[in-house]
Write a structure and sequence with these properties.
Helix content is 32%, strand content 15%. It starts with 7 loop residues before the first strand and ends with a helix. The protein has 362 residues and is α/β, with parallel strands linked by helices. It has helices at residues 37-45, 75-80, 82-90, 146-165, 180-185, 200-203, 205-218, 241-251, 267-276, 296-304, 315-319, 323-329, 355-361, and strands at residues 8-10, 13-15, 19-21, 51-57, 95-99, 118-119, 128-131, 134-137, 142-143, 170-174, 223-227, 258-262, 281-284, 310-313. Strands 3-4-5-10-11-12-13-14 form an eight-stranded parallel beta barrel, surrounded by five helices. A two-stranded antiparallel ribbon has the order 1-2. The model has no long low-confidence stretch (mean pLDDT 94).
Amino acid sequence: MNTLFDATEYGSIKASNRFVMAPMSRNRATELGLATPLMATYYSQRATAGLIITEGIQPNQVGQGYMNSPGLHTYEQAQSWLPVTTKVHEKGGKIVAQLMHCGRIGHPSLYPSAHQSVAPSAVTANGQTFTPEGMQDFAPPRALTYEEIQATIADFAQAAKFAILGGFDGVEIHAGNGFLPHQFLASNTNLRDDEYGGSIENRIRFTLEVIAAVTDAIGADKVGLRLSPHNQFNDINETDTQPLYQALIKALPTNLAYLHIMEAACRDTSIMVRDLWQGPLILNPHQSWEDGPTTPAIATQVLQQDLCDGVGIGALFVANPDLVERARVGADYNEVDDSKFYGGGAEGYTDYPTLEEAAMTA
């Protein structure tokens, strides 16, 4: 029976345990999308996780959706990640870069270029985003042309190459949470009438072509894919979830490093994915949004049910940099303080005490 403390492998990535630090937006990069010393401290503090998946990193400028989010579309950005990955590796950890193109999620006031967001179709998302002027409605996007789709696919591949240059062990393509690949998948955001829209076969094409380009660039054994079936975040409405993801998963290369599922209160779909996908599977278990953050106890349960090979844990990893050790010895966990997650108070997320530090001040 697998436990959280057993070693495992995700393609060429050898993880010392089955704890996965889930990707979470941090908004601590520079305005130029460069990684910062604060980020190196933050990730290295949590390097005892078997695998760290970073915050979303835009593969091109127009893919940025949030203030102070990092990029991997210039040489300087790639170089800025080296202190982060080096510190993680020095502590024995593994870290992959999550490539996240936000598509229609964003606002021109966030960027010096003031660019208009892009999407499969010119469908504005309901909702708001935080901007320098406060909360504002999402701005109308414009539909990508065929040529721009090809250029975006190439940008994902180049970003993957930059990730390897920046010392990452691999990349994760984010195709969930209402971002660009998910916008191509969902019927309410993809109204195209060309080969990228309409039928399920056409709507999964963009995601599959991004995967093909990225695996050609760095090797399938270094590439993971994140999906979030049923997830309505960022105004997504999937009208055909089961057949959509059945078709997508059946069409995936079987030698990807891993598939990563963010559960959206539907365990039946997670079971379907587990049955269809024969490679390594990471699960963010969320049977109910009211259950609170994923704990090692919940992670142990889904492992014992053979629902996955690794378990993504988010908020509890922020509050507990030594979460693996706390789980190992049965210690209490630091409480999650949302005020330390984003914005001006985000520096506080490097100040959560470890067991050793707590003992010294007791």
